Amino acid sequence: MQYFLGVDGGGTKSRLIISDENLNKISITLGDSINIFSVGEQKAFKSLKTLIETALIEQHISIKDVKRICVASAGLARKYDTKVFGNFFKKNYPTLNTIFTTDIRALLVGAFKNNDGICLIAGTGSIAMGQDLNNNVIRSGGFGWRLGDEGSASFIVQEAIKRSLKSLEKRDLETNMLPDLLNFFNINEIDNAIQYFHNPSLDKATVASAAFIVTEYAKKNDLLALDILKQSAKELFKLVLSVNNRLTIIPKRKIITAGGVFEHDEIVNTFFNDEINNYNLDINKTNIVERIHLKTNALEGALYIAKNT
User: Fold this and answer.
1) By the number of CB atoms within 10 A of the CB, which of 84, 200, 249, 268 ranks highest?
2) Contact status, residue 166 vs residue 194, Cβ threshold 8 Å
3) Contact of 164 with 177, CB cutoff 8 Å
4) 221, 232, 217, 237: which is closest to 280 by C-alpha?
5) Measured distance between the N- and C-terminal CA atoms of the chain, rounded to whole angstroms
6) What is the CA angle 19-24-26, rounded to 5?
7) For 61-74, how does the pLDDT look when each residue is reduced to its tens digit (9 = 90+)?
8) Sheet holding 25-32, edge to edge
9) Quick count: other Cβ atoms within 10 Å of Cβ 161?
């Protein structure tokens, strides 16, 4: 029997799915991040090897029986990324057929196949991608946390730190978040935050992991926390509009959302829905957008690509 593997590599965790030749799902294995820009190449490839080996050993499957693997991860459309991932597989699994794509592309394929729609991911980072019935594919964002990732968990925490410091100087809204944020990163003095957050070895997964603190304070009606989450929703909707406005115009376009921000933050979800509703209220718009429930995910999209390429 031949098997197909799909991998969804996020900024903080990864998943691998195995199916048979009829796309019957056999197992799903969890692992650490394989995003080289989140955790570095060494950690990413160590995690990827562990993920593959663990999944195959648990199911008593030989690598010789795997027909194809599709690895989907943020940034895996760029030349450098595909090169280093290709080198990893040539070294460790030289006989394995491989396909590399982005997590957002895998989500788009899994959700819409060849139909019209937009996918938005907001987790450790953020990116939007859409396609229309003419097979045009448009993306927005995805430039990484130092150049973009607006609306993501890393964005939320960076804004919380920066604006909390400004709040101390009465240059922003009032907040009580700063002590808990500093404590999370084991920073005992405000002056030490400068060195900590300018350290080039600091990765966005570490920064993003503190996003729950902002959410907790927003639930307590902390003014700054609420404003940051509202701004996050606005930035995420701008990603959607950037894609929507550059695709062929149709009367209604469906949107699906994924990622930890949408999965764990009800406040961002509410603000995001408000952005959609306000946009659709404008009667001069040539098309409207509709958020729909996500019935699949990037993992299943990666598996679909592995089987049908």
Assistant:
1) 268
2) no
3) yes
4) 237
5) 18
6) 50
7) 999 999 999 999 87
8) 25-32, 13-20, 3-9, 66-73, 97-101
9) 22
Q: Are 297 and 8 in contact (CB under 8 A)?
A: yes
pTM for the model: 0.76
Sign of torsion over alpha carbons 133, 232, 184, 197:
positive
Q: Report DSSP state, residue 12.
A: S
How does pLDDT run across 215-268, given as a tens digit for each residue?
999 999 999 999 999 999 999 999 999 999 898 888 788 898 988 899 889 999
Torsion, Cα 50 93 18 300, to 10 degrees, reads: 90
Give residue 173's Cα distance to chain centre. 29
d(CA 109, CA 40): 27
Rounded to whole angstroms, the Cα distance separating 127 from 104 reads: 7
Confidence of residue 284 (pLDDT cuts 50, 70, 90): low
- Asked if the model's pLDDT at residue 283 lies above 70, the reply is no
Strand order in the sheet with 252-258: 137-141, 126-131, 117-122, 252-258, 288-291
Cα(210)–Cα(233) distance, integer angstroms? 18
Task: Say if 3-101 and 114-294 have the same CATH topology.
Answer: yes
CATH 3.30.420.40 fits 3-101, yes or no: yes
In degrees, rounded to 5, the angle at the alpha carbon of residue 84 between the alpha carbons of residues 82 and 86 is 65
Q: What SS3 class is residue 192?
A: helix
Phi, psi (rounded to 5 degrees) for 55: -65, -45
Instruction: Render pLDDT for 14-60 as a digit per residue (tens, 0 to 9).
Output: 899 999 888 888 999 999 888 887 778 888 899 999 999 999 999 99
Cα Rg, the chain, nearest whole Å = 20
Mean pLDDT calculated for residue range 92-98: 92
Q: Smallest Cα–Cα separation from 150: which of 67, 235, 90, 249?
A: 235
Domain 114-294 in CATH 3.40.640.10? The answer is no
Positive or negative CA dihedral for 138, 144, 147, 151? positive
